[in-house]
Write a structure and sequence with these properties.
The chain is α/β, with parallel strands linked by helices. The chain has a domain of 176 residues: 3-Layer(bba) Sandwich (FAD/NAD(P)-binding domain). 35% of the residues lie in helices and 16% in strands. It has 18 helices and 16 strands. The strands form four sheets. The chain has a seven-stranded mixed β-sheet, with helices on both faces. Strands 9-2-1-10-16 form a five-stranded parallel β-sheet, covered by helices on one side. The longest helix is centred in the first third of the chain and has 13 residues. It is globular, with a radius of gyration of 21 Å. The chain starts with a strand and ends with a helix. This is Phytoene dehydrogenase-like protein. It comes from Antricoccus suffuscus.
Length: 467
């Protein structure tokens, strides 16, 4: 029987393992940490019983992922939960951009920008499944839906700073800008609209759900599916050299390119080593888990019902903060992402103490403490928030890299999302998953289509391995 070893148990490693096992291959996953999941884990970081997501938290592309939909993970315990409102972006003086999964309801609240929002995202939401077939694949492929992909691509090419000119209201501009900022890249650069378009389309197609019981429930369900297929998982095993693996037929590396260089050593062809060594990492996250008493006292009542909240002010403020972190300057008012997952999934709370998930965008490798900046940004739109805090748990950029070695310098995107690396990552090649070492493939978020708990990097890499 053909055998395979997968190094790393993040969603992509697990997806690759499942895909190989479904083809009758004997699969073994090796994970260096005591628990599986990579960026998709949950922990009781503040008080016993209070469930915090360690990294990834909201899953529009998980619910909409072609491969995750095909796995039947609900049979293994995965349950998606939706908040009443998917996304909110508070502004000063009690205003806010509000996104419901229902595009018409979202448009109604955007006033004069409503018709434009409805036309654009109504169509993209309806087309999301078709677009996902192509967008979640490497750039070099025969499109399944060429016209839809071409229209999406033409819009994506624009910098977000130009794209938002179609809207006049601060609410619509900020709502789109906050989603575009998930790319951790200046909003004035080409293709900086792409992530905003994709994630907003996913929001109107699938919403921004959370996993019941925490994000770790996703990888636990995947692990259960793998074991039913005969696959095995070993934790606490660090692979430092491919020679330790007893010469399997297939090796899948759910690792960053720099780790692939270390593991493959002299076996790696010189041109691939050179490309991997030039792989660019982007700005970082600084994460704080809060245990709060009651709810966040947002000035805008609708924000109190939103599962995800972008805290950054108007579009110009978002753009300024993202430009600064790209220049390695820490902004006084960073882009802050807040997760109120407990609104959709009350099982995460303990009595009247609720878990609040938060991170700020900070420069790559930022060595400072952004906790106060995060609190101040929330306090700006929710006066009295500080008084609700009962416990905090902080992960700096260094802590994030220690938690997950793929997060080099605290880069949770596993690679800068500039124009070249959005299109061609981790290197320019017709098969971006091949390492040049026979039978060895890269399947992490450093490969196409990039970051997110969607498993498509692993699925695509497994297809490459299967030939």
């Amino acid at each position: 029987m053909t055998n395979a070893v997968v190094v790393g148990s993040g969603p992509n490693g697990l997806t690759a393992a499942i895909a190989l096992a479904e083809h009758g291959i004997d699969v073994r996953i090796l994970e260096s940490r005591p628990t599986i999941g990579g960026g998709a884990r949950s922990s009781e970081n503040t008080i016993p019983g209070l469930i915090h997501d360690d990294c990834s938290a909201f899953h529009p592309t998980g619910a909409g992922s072609p491969v995750m939909q095909s796995m039947g993970l609900d049979e293994f315990g995965l349950e998606w939960c939706w908040p009443e409102i998917d996304l909110a972006h508070p502004l000063d003086h009690g205003r806010a951009g509000i996104l419901w999964r229902d595009v018409d309801r979202t448009a109604q609240r955007l006033g004069p920008d409503g018709p434009s929002w409805r036309r654009l995202f109504g169509a993209l939401g309806r087309d999301f499944d078709d677009l996902a077939e192509d967008i979640f694949r490497p750039i070099v492929h025969i499109p399944a839906h060429p016209l839809k992909l071409a229209r999406f691509g033409a819009r994506s090419l624009l910098p977000a700073s130009l794209f938002v000119r179609r809207w006049k209201t601060p609410e619509a501009r900020a709502l789109f800008g906050g989603v575009a900022a998930h790319a951790f890249n200046p909003l004035t650069t080409p293709l900086s609209s792409s992530v905003g378009l994709l994630l907003t389309a996913a929001a109107h197609a699938y919403g921004w759900p959370v996993a019941k019981g925490g994000t770790g429930a996703i990888t636990q369900a995947m692990a259960k599916k793998l074991t039913t297929l005969g696959g095995t998982i070993e934790t606490g095993v660090t692979v430092r050299d491919i020679a330790e693996l007893d010469n399997p037929d297939i090796v899948m590396l759910d690792t960053a390119p720099d780790a692939a260089i270390r593991i493959l050593g002299d076996r790696l062809p010189a041109h691939v080593r050179h490309a991997y060594s030039r792989f660019r990492y982007g700005p970082a996250a600084f994460k704080v888990d809060f245990a709060i008493e009651g709810d966040v006292p947002w000035t805008n009542e609708l924000v109190r019902r939103a599962g995800t909240v972008h805290v950054a002010g108007e579009f110009a403020e978002v753009a300024d903060a993202e430009a600064k972190i790209a220049r390695h300057v820490m902004p006084a008012q960073p882009f802050v992402l807040i997760g109120q997952q407990y609104l959709a999934d009350p099982s995460r709370s303990v009595g009247d103490i609720n878990p609040l998930w938060a991170y700020a965008h900070v420069p790559h490798g930022y060595a400072g403490d952004a906790t106060e900046a995060i609190i101040a940004q929330v306090e700006r739109f929710a006066p009295g928030f500080r008084n609700r805090i009962r416990h905090t748990f902080v992960r700096s950029t260094a802590d994030l890299e220690a938690y997950n070695a793929n997060y080099v310098g605290g880069d949770i995107s596993a690679g800068r999302n500039d124009a070249l690396q959005i299109l061609m990552r981790p290197r320019i090649a017709p098969n971006p998953y091949a390492t040049g070492v026979p039978g060895v493939f890269l399947c992490s978020s450093a490969s196409p289509p990039g970051g997110g708990v969607h498993g498509m990097c692993g699925a695509n890499a497994a297809l490459a391995a299967l030939g």
